[in-house]
Design goal:
six-stranded parallel β-sheet, 2 domains, three-stranded antiparallel β-sheet, single chain, Rossmann fold, formyl-coa transferase, domain 3, alpha/beta
C-alpha cells in the first residue's frame, strides 16, 4: 500500500497565476496536499498561453511554462467578480487550510476575499499573499516581473561579464530565479504557519514579496558588502570563494567548471595539470595567496586548460578527486548517469484514457517515510469544477447548473 504524502489532509485553495506562487503550491501538492487551483472561466491561468512551446496535443494548448508549475492540482473555474463566484470562494475557504493568492494589493478586498474578511469565516485559515513588493510601502501598488526584481534587488549587478572584458555589463540570470526562490520561501512560510496553526488553533496572514526574496537570496554577496562596504564585482563564470572556482575554455572550445579552493584540491589540480610546482609558488601556495593574486592565477590556469580538449581534463581531474564538470547543454544534462540514476526525469500519471503522460522534473525532495510518489498531470482548465464543488461543498447537479447559468463557474 502506498504511504500517504506528508501533507495528506491539508487542503490548499490556490488563486495564483504565472510562476512564483504556483511553484509553491505545486511543491505542496507534490508533498500530498489537495491543491484546488481556481482559474478564470474560459481563460485560465495566463501561463497557459506562455508559449511556444506547447504540449503536442491538439486538444490541449497548455504551454511548457504552465506545465512546469501545476502538476498535482485540481482545476476549477470560478468568476470571483460575480456575487455567486465570490460566495463560492468564501465557501471553499471556509473548508480549506490554506489560501494562496497573488493579486495586486487590495484587489480581493473588493469582493470580500481578503484576509480580514475570510478570517471571520475561518479563523484557522493560513492566508498567503504573494506580490511583487509586499502589502505595504511606497511600491506596494506596483506590478512587477522577475526581470524587474533581478534588476532592483541587485542580482543583475553581480551577474555578468567583468568590467574591462568584451561584452561586460550586468546580466539577468537566464532562469526566472527570483520567482523560483520566492516560491521556495513561500512554501516554507506556509509550512511554518501550519505548524503554528496546529499548535495554537490560529491562522495568520503571510506577506511574501518578490523584491524581499530576491534581495535575501543574495546571501553572502550582501553580507560581504555589509561587512566591507564594497559592492561585489561581476566575475562572469567565476565564484567568490576560494580560487579557482571558475569556468575554463579547453582546446576543443568546450568549457569546464573547476573548483579547487582547498589546499588538497589545489594540489590535486596542479598534479592533474602536470604542473605540481605551482603549489610551491608563493602566489599559489595558500588559499589567501590565490585570492590576492586571482588574476595571475586564472591567467596561468586558463593557458594550461587551452592545451587539451575538455574530455581529457575531466578525466584527469576526476581521477585526482578535483571537483569539476563539463558545462552541459540540456541534452547532456539528461544523459548524465547521475541524473539518470536519480530519476530526475519523470512522467505524469496518465489518468483518464484521453490524457497522455507529460515529461516533468522529479521533485528533488526524498523522504524515507512519506515519499513523493504521485505526479498527477497538470489539469486542463476547469476539469475538476463539478467534482470539487460536489466533494467539498456538497453541491448537487442542480446547484452546479445554476452556478454555470449565472456565469459564476
Amino acid at each position: 500500500m502506498t504511504a500517504p504524502g506528508a501533507l495528506a489532509g491539508i487542503r490548499i485553495l490556490d488563486l495564483s497565476r504565472i510562476l512564483a506562487a504556483p511553484f509553491a503550491t505545486q511543491l505542496l501538492g507534490d508533498l500530498g496536499a489537495d491543491v484546488i487551483k481556481v482559474e478564470r472561466p474560459g481563460v485560465g491561468d495566463d501561463a497557459r498561453d506562455y508559449g511556444p512551446p506547447f504540449l503536442g496535443d491538439p486538444d490541449n494548448r497548455d504551454s511548457g511554462f504552465y506545465l512546469s508549475t501545476n502538476r498535482n492540482k485540481r482545476s476549477i473555474t470560478v468568476d470571483h467578480s460575480t456575487p455567486e463566484g465570490a460566495r463560492l470562494i468564501r465557501d471553499l475557504a471556509a473548508k480549506s487550510d490554506v489560501l494562496v493568492e497573488n493579486f495586486r494589493t487590495g484587489v480581493l478586498a473588493k469582493y470580500g476575499l481578503d484576509h480580514d474578511s475570510l478570517r471571520e469565516i475561518n479563523p484557522r485559515l493560513v492566508y498567503c499573499s504573494v506580490t511583487g513588493f509586499g502589502q505595504d510601502g511606497p511600491y506596494a501598488d506596483r506590478a512587477g516581473y522577475d526581470g524587474v526584481f533581478q534588476a532592483m534587488c541587485g542580482l543583475m549587478s553581480v551577474s555578468g561579464i567583468p568590467d574591462g572584458e568584451p561584452g561586460a555589463g550586468p546580466m539577468k540570470v537566464g532562469v526566472s530565479m527570483v520567482d523560483i526562490l520566492t516560491g521556495l520561501y513561500t512554501a516554507t512560510a506556509i509550512l511554518a504557519a501550519l505548524r503554528h496553526r496546529d499548535a495554537t488553533g490560529e491562522g495568520q496572514h503571510i506577506d511574501m514579496s518578490l523584491l524581499d526574496c530576491g534581495l535575501a537570496s543574495l546571501s553572502h554577496y550582501v553580507q560581504n558588502y555589509l561587512v566591507s562596504g564594497e559592492p561585489a564585482p561581476r566575475r562572469g563564470n567565476g565564484g567568490f570563494g576560494g580560487i579557482p572556482s571558475q569556468a575554463f575554455t579547453c582546446a576543443d572550445g568546450e568549457d569546464i567548471f573547476v573548483v579547487a579552493s582547498t589546499p588538497r584540491q589545489f594540489a590535486g589540480l596542479a598534479g592533474a595539470l602536470g604542473r605540481p610546482e605551482l603549489t610551491d609558488d608563493p602566489r599559489f601556495a595558500t588559499v589567501s595567496a590565490r585570492i590576492a593574486n586571482r588574476d595571475h592565477v586564472l591567467e596561468v590556469l586558463s593557458a594550461i586548460f587551452a592545451t587539451e580538449p575538455r574530455e581529457v581534463w575531466v578525466r584527469r581531474l576526476e581521477d585526482a578527486d578535483v571537483p569539476c564538470s563539463p558545462v552541459n547543454s540540456m541534452p547532456q544534462v539528461f544523459a548524465n548517469p547521475q541524473i539518470v540514476h536519480r530519476e530526475m526525469l519523470r512522467h505524469t500519471d496518465t489518468g483518464a484514457v484521453r490524457d497522455s503522460a507529460v515529461p516533468v522534473l522529479r521533485n528533488p525532495i526524498r523522504l524515507s517515510q512519506t515519499p513523493i510518489h504521485g505526479y498527477r498531470r497538470p489539469p486542463r482548465l476547469g476539469a475538476d469544477t463539478d467534482d470539487v464543488l460536489a466533494d467539498v461543498l456538497g453541491a448537487t447537479t442542480s446547484d452546479i447548473d445554476k452556478l454555470r447559468a449565472a456565469g459564476a463557474i
